[in-house]
């Protein structure tokens, strides 16, 4: 029988984690959390989360970096901002969730085969190449790269939307797509 | 009359084509002058913020710089575009180092942005700038059969704006009432539709939308009015999947508030994009 310790020792926690979060734009107030739970109570998706927003805030403060960045919670946040507008301590919880997603992407520790980071990658690629998004192409790419079987479930809907003139085949583009690359040059990788 | 730089965003040119058609028809009816923001780019939506925030802000600054070049205020009908532009403005003001970075990037493509561009949602123009009395003057056809659940979704009222109360706004309610529609009490009016979750984690997205439609029916609504392309898409395009999953029998028309306005103004079905609906709402069209 293998005995496994399932709580962390103080020395294993990452005390710098909260400083990292607080140094992001909009992250400054994270120190002020009073653990009231308003964020979790108001979040329409908290019932699907592995850790509720309130717990995420507590885990940031205690240094559970790995657990937070590996959690499904950060990807489930749909950025509806209800927690942010209700937080009595003015913590920008939604913006902190964005910061956590960025850290998880940078450190390459997203949950495997999870479609949300795939969507994020395809979305940013399309904006960089064309300056605009074509929703039909984006969705097709998303399904193709995360769960190809879903294409069959939604091919009917796709056809319907096409007939209604709501999706187009040609990519949308700005006049000079290279301009976006020039614009973003020098910014990438900088916080 | 003031002239606006119209920033449609990607969805309004795509899945939400009917939003654009009806919005521009209503603008025309009300005498609002607009020009499409020339060579606009994607605002980055909420997705870009979760990949690279500075880039997201720079992308939307390009749009504001383009509007500023022509000295116009921006009108943004899509909630995500609206939020992202407002948020960018807010952050540029608050963080000088961010402003500096963006300034440098913009100058590399020959643009500059002072931070002063005003961003408005069409609702603000209709209700606050024109006033409901002026809107009422254009009503030609009473909307007798419609009982509308006004659904705002999340981002239009929070948190970088002061349009209305962030939890229980009433600005669209008052607009719809002023054109003679009956609006039902709809407590979930700012509850999230799931945004892009519907396409990625279906079970969560479908559940959120099921709750929204179910509640509208319970409140006696026979139609939901929306103001965001993604809300419209989630509520309408996934209705069949929702019915399958929850053994429900929803057949709820999901109209843009501008389509409802156009109907009351007596504008043609064609100009309001009525034929683009998956769940038809043409039976509401006043004769």
Order of helices and strands of chain B: EHHEHHEHHEHHEHEHHEHHEH
Largest beta-sheet details of chain B: 4 strands, parallel
Please give the radius of gyration of chain B in angstroms.
19 Å
Q: Mean of residue pLDDT of chain B? A: 93
- The coarse silhouette of chain B is globular
Structure description:
The complex is a heterodimer of chains A (191) and B (287). Chain A is mostly helical. Chain A has helices at 17-22, 38-42, 53-62, 65-70, 73-76, 82-86, 93-106, 115-130, 135-146, 150-163, 178-184. Chain A is globular. Chain A starts with 16 loop residues before the first helix and ends in a 7-residue tail after the last helix. Chain B is α/β, with parallel strands linked by helices and 287 residues long. Helices cover 48% and strands 9% of the residues of chain B. Chain B has 14 helices and 8 strands. Chain B has a 4-stranded parallel β-sheet. A 4-stranded parallel β-sheet of chain B has the order 6-5-7-8, with helices on both faces. In chain B, helix 9 links the parallel strand 5 (147-150) and strand 6 (182-183). In chain B, helix 2 (17-30) crosses helix 14 (257-265), helix 4 crosses helix 6 (96-107) and helix 5 (79-94) packs across helix 6 (96-107). The longest helix of chain B has 17 residues, at 53-69. Chain B is globular. The two termini of chain B are 32 Å apart. The model of chain B has no long low-confidence stretch (mean pLDDT 93). The interface between A and B is large, with 60 and 61 residues.
């Amino acid at each position: 029988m293998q005995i496994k310790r399932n709580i962390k020792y103080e020395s294993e926690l990452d005390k710098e984690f909260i400083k990292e979060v607080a140094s992001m734009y909009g992250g400054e107030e994270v120190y002020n959390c009073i653990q009231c739970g308003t964020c979790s109570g108001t979040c329409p998706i908290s019932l699907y989360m592995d850790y509720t927003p309130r717990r995420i805030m507590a885990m940031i403060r205690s240094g559970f970096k790995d657990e937070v960045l590996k959690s499904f919670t950060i990807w489930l946040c749909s950025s509806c901002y209800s927690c942010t507008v209700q937080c009595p301590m003015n913590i920008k919880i939604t913006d902190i969730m964005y910061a956590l997603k960025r850290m998880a992407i940078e450190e390459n520790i997203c949950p495997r085969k999870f479609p949300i980071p795939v969507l994020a990658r395809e979305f940013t690629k399309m904006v960089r190449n064309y300056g605009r998004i074509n929703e039909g192409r984006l969705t097709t790419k998303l399904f193709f790269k995360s769960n190809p079987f879903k294409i069959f479930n939604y091919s009917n809907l796709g056809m319907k939307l096409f007939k209604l003139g709501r999706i187009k085949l040609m990519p949308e583009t700005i006049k000079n797509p290279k301009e976006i690359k020039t614009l973003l040059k020098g910014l990438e990788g900088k916080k | 009359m003031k002239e606006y730089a119209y920033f449609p965003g990607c969805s309004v040119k795509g899945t939400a084509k009917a939003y654009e058609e009806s919005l521009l028809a209503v603008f025309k009816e009300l005498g609002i002058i607009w020009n499409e923001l020339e060579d606009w780019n994607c605002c980055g939506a909420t997705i870009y913020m979760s990949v690279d925030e500075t880039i997201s802000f720079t992308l939307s600054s390009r749009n504001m710089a383009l509007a500023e070049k022509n000295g116009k205020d921006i009108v943004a009908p899509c909630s995500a575009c609206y939020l992202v532009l407002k948020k960018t403005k807010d952050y540029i003001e608050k963080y000088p180092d961010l402003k500096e970075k963006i300034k440098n990037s913009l100058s590399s493509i020959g643009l500059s942005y002072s931070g002063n561009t005003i961003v408005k949602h069409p609702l603000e123009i209709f209700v606050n700038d024109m006033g409901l009395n002026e809107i009422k003057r254009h009503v030609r056809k009473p909307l007798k059969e419609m009982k509308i659940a006004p659904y705002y979704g999340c981002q239009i009222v929070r948190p970088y704006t002061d349009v209305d109360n962030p939890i229980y706004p009433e600005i669209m309610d008052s607009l719809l009432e002023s054109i003679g529609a009956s609006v039902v009490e709809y407590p979930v009016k700012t509850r999230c539709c799931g945004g892009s979750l519907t396409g990625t984690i279906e079970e969560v997205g479908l559940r959120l939308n099921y709750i929204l439609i179910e509640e509208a029916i319970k409140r006696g609504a026979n139609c939901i009015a929306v103001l965001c392309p993604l809300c419209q898409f989630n509520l309408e395009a996934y209705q069949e999947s929702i019915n399958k999953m929850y053994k429900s029998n929803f057949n709820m028309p999901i109209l843009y508030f501008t389509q409802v306005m156009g109907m009351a103004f007596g504008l043609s079905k064609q100009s309001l994009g009525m034929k683009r609906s998956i769940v038809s709402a043409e039976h509401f069209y006043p004769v």
